Inverse folding.
C-alpha cells in the first residue's frame, strides 16, 4: 500500500482538487451564459419587428375642410363628451357605456372611443383651460391609424393593435424627414432610423417627452391606445393652448403635423364626428 504522505499521493490529491475547481468554474460559467442568454432573449422579445416599408396613408381619401388656419375651431357648443351633466337621464353613466353607446353611430371602435373619452376627461381635470374635445383626438386617430386598424391590425381589449403599428423608416427619402435612431430600436424595431409607432404614430423622441401610462398597467406604451390618446391630448394642450379657439386649435394640430392639409382633414373629421354624435345623443 502506498504511503499517504508520499510524493505521488500528494500530486494525486492536487490533481483531484484542480479538477474539482475546474468543474465548479465550468458550472458557474455555464449558468452565467444561460442567464445572460435568457436576459438577451427577453430583451430581444420586447423589441418589436419593424414593419415593411409602405407608402399607404390611412387618411388619403379624407376630404379636407374648407377652412383657413387659425380662423376657427371645430365643435363649439356641442355637449357630446363623456359623463355629461344629463348622463343619468340618458342611462349612460360610465365612460365605457358612453363609448359603447356612441361607437356604432360614429363608426369608431368602442375600445378607441374609451381611450379618446378618457383623454378628454383627464384633461378636463389636469388642464381645464385647454377645453379639448375627444373629437379632435379621434380625428387624429383616424388619420394616423384608422383608430388602431391600419394595415389590417385589430385593436384588442387591452388597447393594443395586433400586429403592432410601426410606420416607415424616417430615412430622408422624398417627402420623409430623416431622423436617425434614438431609441436603439426598443419602440420601433429599427436601429438605424426612427419610425412613428402606435395608433397615434409617435416618434420615439416625442414619446419620451409626452408618454404616459393611462391604462394603469405600469408601462407607458405608444402601442397602447389609452396611453397614446392621453399623450396626444397632453401634446395638444401643451404651452397653455386653448383648443376651443381657432388659434389654439390650429397651433396644437399643426404642431402635431406641420401640414395645413393635415389640419384641414383633422378639422373635417372632428366636425363629422361631432355632428354624428350630436344627432345620435341630441
Amino acid at each position: 500500500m502506498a504511503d499517504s504522505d508520499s510524493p505521488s499521493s500528494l500530486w494525486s490529491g492536487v490533481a483531484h482538487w484542480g479538477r474539482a475547481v475546474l468543474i465548479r468554474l465550468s458550472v458557474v460559467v455555464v449558468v452565467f451564459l444561460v442567464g445572460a442568454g435568457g436576459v438577451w432573449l427577453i430583451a430581444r422579445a420586447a423589441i418589436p419587428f419593424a414593419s415593411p416599408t409602405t407608402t399607404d396613408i390611412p387618411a388619403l381619401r379624407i376630404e379636407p375642410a374648407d377652412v383657413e388656419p387659425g380662423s376657427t375651431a371645430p365643435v363649439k357648443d356641442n355637449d357630446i363628451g363623456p359623463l355629461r351633466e344629463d348622463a343619468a337621464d340618458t342611462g349612460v353613466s360610465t365612460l365605457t357605456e358612453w363609448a359603447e353607446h356612441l361607437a356604432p353611430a360614429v363608426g369608431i371602435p368602442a375600445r378607441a372611443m374609451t381611450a379618446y373619452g378618457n383623454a378628454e376627461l383627464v384633461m378636463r381635470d389636469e388642464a381645464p383651460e385647454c377645453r379639448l374635445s375627444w373629437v379632435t383626438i379621434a380625428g387624429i386617430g383616424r388619420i394616423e391609424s384608422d383608430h388602431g386598424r391600419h394595415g389590417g391590425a385589430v385593436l384588442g381589449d387591452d388597447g393594443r393593435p395586433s400586429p403592432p403599428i410601426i410606420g416607415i423608416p424616417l430615412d430622408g427619402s422624398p417627402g420623409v424627414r430623416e431622423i436617425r435612431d434614438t431609441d436603439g430600436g426598443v419602440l420601433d424595431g429599427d436601429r438605424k432610423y426612427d419610425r412613428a409607432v402606435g395608433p397615434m404614430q409617435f416618434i420615439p423622441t416625442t414619446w419620451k417627452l409626452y408618454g404616459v401610462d393611462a391604462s394603469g398597467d405600469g408601462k407607458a406604451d405608444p402601442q397602447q391606445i389609452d396611453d397614446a390618446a392621453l399623450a396626444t391630448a397632453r401634446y395638444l394642450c401643451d404651452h397653455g393652448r386653448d383648443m376651443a379657439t381657432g388659434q389654439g386649435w390650429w397651433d396644437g394640430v399643426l404642431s402635431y403635423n406641420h401640414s395645413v392639409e393635415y389640419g384641414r382633414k383633422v378639422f373635417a373629421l372632428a366636425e363629422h364626428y361631432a355632428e354624428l354624435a350630436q344627432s345620435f345623443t341630441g
